[in-house]
Predict the 3D structure of the following.
Amino acid sequence: MCGRFVLEASREAVEALFEVEVTVLHEARFNIAPSQPVLHVHAFLGERQTDFARWGLVPHWHKDPANAQMLINARIETVLEKPSFRTAVRHRRVLVPATHFYEWRREGKVKQPYAANRKNPDGSEGLFAFAGIIDEPSGADGSTVPTLAILTQQADGALLDIHHRAPVVVPAEHYASWLDCRTVSPETALEPLRTPPPDAWMLWPVDRAVNRAGVDGARLLEEIPLPEGSTAEEEDAPKQAQLDLF
């Protein structure tokens, strides 16, 4: 799954890779977590634009968005079929800029976090893009809030030793088709993403401070020696696995 990620690339790197002007507040973030605002690139009106959406998709048809479960991930294998996602993947596909993500390996009662980045990123400063989808439920007062999910797929290579799922990355040559929800069908947009390059990630263990969503800073990406005889309980890791079942 993908439950935490990093965007430390500069505004200039984001604008260069995605060929878009960043018109919203941009700052380095080292522990982006569900329910927080996520920078994304969209082309809903034809031209590429940047905006924020709350991470944790709520379908537009949900009768009580304020109390709905946030769906942070959507499986590429079933995204076209699931009622929660099929409208979003057809009409509101976005790119989510990132430079790393975190994953946890279960070792008995311990969950050790690892950071992952691309061996061959598409942009400078390690920048690449997750495949994202957005939906906008209406609140009781009629207002709408953009909500976002990141697509996942079967992991492979070194990442498979940590977790069986991985976030879907959109290669730069497919940005245009992924963002074009007016003339490109979701089936066509998804097809080149289903077979990612093999063993595309580098991984290293990091401090469990990343487990706390309120902690931020570049130190979260620093490699640490693996602890011996740790007694940390499962509760130390983020409790988001249930959000990856859709």
Q: What stands out?
A: The first strand starts at residue 4 and ends at 7. The first helix runs from residue 11 to 18. The chain has four helices and twelve strands. The mean pLDDT is 91.
